[in-house]
Design a protein that fits this description.
The protein folds into two domains: about 350 residues, no CATH class; about 150 residues, no CATH class. The chain contains 20 helices and six strands. Strands 1, 2, 3, 4, 5 and 6 form a six-stranded antiparallel beta sheet that branches. β5 and β6 form a beta hairpin.
Length: about 550
């Protein structure tokens, strides 16, 4: 099936704190008659949207959470943590020292490391400046030895050596008496040392020839003494440069785990500074020991509907990586810019006019390659080439740790799945979720690289600079670009013309490779079909919480 650009349902109001794919699922699920049906599927039954609240002894909440995390892979689920935060009151000294105080210690270590790295960079730049200047002089010596033309060396001697002999002794000051003395010195033939011979060959007075002979002897002595010293200095500077460069890289590598742990301990008030004002879970005025941590989970597994309805799911010609249907379709391409913009990657991976850039194409190819197993039927593969639908769960897990003071105080865990939801989604929507996970990881890595100043950050900055000096596009490439733009404009015009007729068109033809009959098949077959997984997950939690 040819790749078609799917029509998207109207967008909900964008929440910058939410995941982009969460918004997309809401948009699709909220419009069961939207033109996007057939191009993408996301069905979340109302009865599979649940809040589970458990209160138990200290440690019971963590036990239940980890029991679920270790059980899900046994059922064939792939799990990803997509968000996390923490908040601890200082009154709980033990827990505070394990979390927030540890973050402050990491911050101090990072500051020390960054200061050391900055000093190393400053030393490196000074050494590199000296190395560059000495290397320049060595290049002059090498060129003179190769071409037998000492023009540059003599100019260097006049400007950087003879000029500092003092007023009345340097050739620059002697130019008042002999205006052409510097030119005469530079054009002196090699091997000439007798003043009379100099007078004849250079065509100067005897007095000037005598001075030129003296300066030439000084020049020859400078060459003999300076060249060995120059080589020795360059060798020492090269060793120091390599050592300093290595130390900078080691400082940055040493800082990476510290920075990663520091960024991972994210306090809720960093996201919402006004949380203390309105969040009922935060009660610092009580003066009691409490901690709040939240985790957002996505987990999924392949799902096969009880009755297949679309003939396109048998085999699509030209699908990449062995998929029955190519998941990297128009719907995914249309929504990738939203993800890139959300995570600040539009400048690096975004294309022109909302298109997917070549760099992003390669990134998606790598995501698909890593998500699909090399060996068929691999257990717990992120994506299955032979399956086009998936059972997809979202869980917002909140764990509140509370210690109230005596004599009636207790120490409890309050674990909430607020909420846990189940959906059945098509593989292209799952790919969009994987792209968002990749974008979050890429943003995290880029922030760390920029804070530390790694080679990756330097290369990225250099790439941006080189773009300003890149070669202009050839005439042939410009013509091809014009043809491509004209084709895309025609395709867009065709899509705009079809949109008003999509309601009528959908009554007779069901486009797209995925399920379009939402009310009958989507709700009764697909949504009910994931009920077994829903019962297994929620039933497991209920059993662990002893709520049955």
């Amino acid at each position: 099936m040819a790749d078609q650009k799917a029509a998207s349902p109207p967008r909900a109001m964008y929440n910058p704190d939410s995941m982009v794919c969460d918004d997309i699922r809401k948009e699709i699920a909220g419009h069961p008659n939207a033109p996007a049906l057939g191009y993408v599927l996301s069905a979340g039954p109302f009865e599979m949207d649940k809040i589970i609240d458990f209160t138990g002894l200290r440690g019971s909440g963590s036990n239940i959470y980890y029991s679920l995390i270790y059980q899900l892979p046994k059922w064939g689920f792939t799990i990803k943590k997509v968000d996390e935060y923490i908040e601890v009151t200082p009154a709980w000294a033990e827990y505070y020292n394990l979390t927030i105080a540890q973050k402050q210690k990491l911050e101090a270590s990072i500051k020390t490391g960054l200061a050391s790295a900055a000093q190393s960079v400053a030393d490196y730049e000074l050494l590199k400046h000296d190395f560059r200047r000495y290397q320049e002089v060595l290049d002059y010596f090498a060129a003179a030895d190769k071409t037998k033309d000492e023009h540059m060396l003599r100019s260097l001697f006049v400007d950087r050596v003879d000029a500092f002999t003092g007023e009345g002794y340097s050739m620059i000051s002697m130019a008042k008496r002999w205006p052409t003395i510097i030119t005469d010195f530079i054009r002196m033939p090699p091997g000439v040392d007798d003043p009379k011979e100099i007078k004849e060959k250079v065509d100067v007075t005897m007095a000037e020839a005598t001075v030129l002979r003296t300066k030439n002897q000084l020049y020859q002595e400078w060459k003999a003494l300076f060249l060995p010293e120059l080589k020795d200095r360059i060798a020492r500077l090269k060793v120091l440069l390599d050592s300093r460069r290595k130390s900078i890289d080691e400082y940055r590598l040493w800082l990476k785990p510290y920075m990663a742990r520091y960024k991972a301990i994210r306090e809720q008030t960093e996201l919402k500074p006004a949380a203390f004002m309105s969040d009922a879970f935060h009660t610092p005025g009580f003066g009691q020991a409490q901690a709040l941590t939240g985790v957002k989970l996505w987990f999924w597994k392949p799902f096969t509907p009880p009755e297949k309805g679309k003939p396109e799911s048998i085999k699509e010609r030209g699908a990449r990586h062995g998929f029955r249907i190519d998941p990297f379709d128009g719907f995914v391409r249309e929504n990738i810019p939203r993800i890139l913009e959300r995570y600040g990657l539009a400048g690096e991976y975004g294309g022109e006019d909302g298109r997917v850039s070549e760099k992003m194409e390669k990134a998606v190819e790598n995501i698909l390659k890593e998500a699909t197993p090399k060996v068929p039927k691999t257990y717990n593969a992120v994506m299955n080439k032979d399956v086009v639908y998936y059972t997809f769960f979202t869980a917002d897990v909140i764990l509140a740790l509370i210690r109230t003071p005596p004599p009636e105080g207790v120490e409890t865990d309050n674990l909430m799945f607020h909420p846990i939801k189940a959906h059945v989604i098509s593989q292209n929507l799952l790919l969009l979720h994987l792209i968002e996970i990749w974008a979050r990881e890429r943003m995290f890595e880029r922030e760390i690289n920029e804070l530390i100043g790694t080679r990756e950050a330097e290369e990225s900055a250099l790439e941006a600079i080189n773009k300003r000096f890149g070669p202009e596009v050839e005439e042939r490439m410009r013509r091809l670009e014009g043809v491509r733009r004209a084709w895309e404009k025609g395709a867009a015009a065709k899509g705009r013309a079809q949109k008003p007729l999509s309601w009528v068109y959908g009554r007779f033809v069901r486009p797209g490779p995925y399920e379009r009959v939402f009310k009958e098949r989507g709700s009764k077959m697909y949504a009910r079909g994931i009920g077994g997984d829903w019962s297994a997950v929620t039933g497991f939690l209920m059993d662990k919480m002893q709520m049955k």
